[in-house]
Amino acid sequence: MTEEKMLKVEKIRRGTVIDHIPVGRAFKVLKILKISSDPGVTVSIAIHVKSKKMGLKDVVKIEDRILDSSELNKIALIADGATITIVEDYGVIKKFVVKLPDIITGILKCSNLKCVSNMEGSIIPSFTLISKEPLTIKCHYCEREMETEEIVENIL
Amino acid sequence: MMWLNRDIVSIGDFSVDEIMEIIDKANKMVQYASSGHPERPLSGKIVATLFYEPSTRTRLSFESAAMRMGARVLGFGSLEGSSVAKGETLSDTIRIVNSYSDAIVLRHPAEGAARLASEFADVPVINAGDGAGQHPTQALLDIFTVWKESGPVNGKSIGFVGDLKYGRTVHSLSKALSMFDVSLYFISPEELKIPKHIKKDIEKRVPVRETKNLEDVIEELDVLYVTRIQKERFPDIEEYKKVAGIYVIRPSLISRGKKNLIIMHPLPRVDEIPPEIDHLPQARYFKQASYGVPVRMAILDLILRGE
Questions:
Q1: Of B106 and A41, which is predicted with more confidence?
Q2: For residue B280, what is the domain's CATH number?
Q3: Rounded distance, CA A90 to CA A69, Å?
Q4: Mind telling me how many Å the CA of B92 is from chain A's nearest CA?
Q5: How far apart are CA B104 and CA A144, in angstroms?
Q6: What is the ipTM of this complex?
Q7: CB pairs A-B closer than 8 Å
Q8: Interface test with B, best of A120, A142, A147, A150 (most B CBs within 10 A)
Q9: The whole model's pTM is what?
Q10: Shortest CA gap A148–chain B (Å)
Q11: In this structure, which CATH number among 3.40.50.2020, 3.30.1440.10, 3.30.1050.10, 3.30.70.140 belongs to the domain A3-97?
């Protein structure tokens, strides 16, 4: 992507840029990161951005916040293939693509309230990726399958 | 195939070949199911039966199967007086019982409890029902019943009628049958339809038809699997009566079915199969219940001796 296009939204001094989000999912990314309700964080959102690779895409820029690996894993759940750029002093210090793992552990809970993983406190919920499109994962314990909406609702 | 120390948690863990291996072995055990295996192959073994929920048939048939094979049995059938009543977690209980026994049979109200237990136990864990989740040994004995009473499973049209929403037997069995070349019919009122996630999974492999009217499909079925509609699932007793009455199996209905139709039921039954059906040649539910012992003998032998 050219610098000109990337900077459609104002350049940030420090923070995280999440690019190549599947179109329509920018707000879900914010929901997952639980930053829509945090007034201390400035967020810029570009939706329906033209993209050579994706046709249309969404982009999110978060100022003064560097995402950690657990947050990046959560993003991969709904934006597999998104590009993450970490910015310090207006310069790119790290750029990489998030990838949805085959086993998803510890970042969301099972939607089945009767699942043992919701009852025994010491258990770390774990899910197997069944399909990427449509996104479907299966609970390791109760075998309940969950799709995008349910997944977003149950992210920890 | 590797059977020694293998957990029996979910029917989805098994291939058709493995299911058929259990069925073959269970068939050899039928002759010993009422007299006991003469060689006592599991002599010296201890089987723990941990039942966090009440059950008569499953627990007794497991215990009978273990004893018929020469093993001894310990455990509990209710929580009263157990450490669970004092608030012990499942994982702690399993860690302890692991050192007291050679295999653990577990029934628990939480879905996925047996999978969890299998991660904390070195000895094999057998799922004897986890909430509305899996009940793999019931599914295996049901498949054994179809095979024994109706012939090869492939090619069969099998209809489930009644409470398909909460009945875990239906969930496990329909999933298991979908690994074979069968057609499945789900016959239930709107309120008790098979859960979407289960239907969706099954439809990937076999044709599925859903209907409210048993009359519409009775002529197509080789196996009619009847389940109990539980009163407590309905907020309004009148609604229950309306629904429950529709699915009472009458001789006139059965006479419209195929000549070789068989009727199964996981039992206990209430009104859905009246006693006048019991003497019909199609009624196989008592046979089905009796197969619980040889099937569980076969499973215990496979996981405790590996053969």
A1: B106
A2: 3.40.50.1370
A3: 22
A4: 11
A5: 24
A6: 0.84
A7: 57
A8: A142
A9: 0.86
A10: 14
A11: 3.30.70.140
